[in-house]
Amino acid sequence: MSTLRGSGQKHFEFTRAGQVFGFYLKASNDTFVEVFLAAEVENTEARCLNHFCLETGDLEALRQRLVDRGYQPGEIIMAVDQTPQFWITDPNGLPVEFQQYTPASAQLTGQSVEVNW
What we know:
By secondary structure, the chain is mainly beta. It is 12% helix and 37% strand.
């Protein structure tokens, strides 16, 4: 059994104009729960989750497999946490995010992220 490193600890924060409005909570090793103030997310009364995110080792290949199967994922973009990502919507309308960590990703560096959105 592997040892959990940093389990249940705040890993990095999202700030806007110097104020914290969200953070990554480290669940285990490279697994996180992204937490935002309720006022920062849409449809909080319509569903329990705002979105679901999975990490992949090959973002471009995963996106192409979805396209090849007839799905319409968004384009790959660089997120403010320095992690490439793309989004798709599941059949129930839940946004699903796929991302691939890089050495600069806040998920690996633990650096807080100042956003402009």
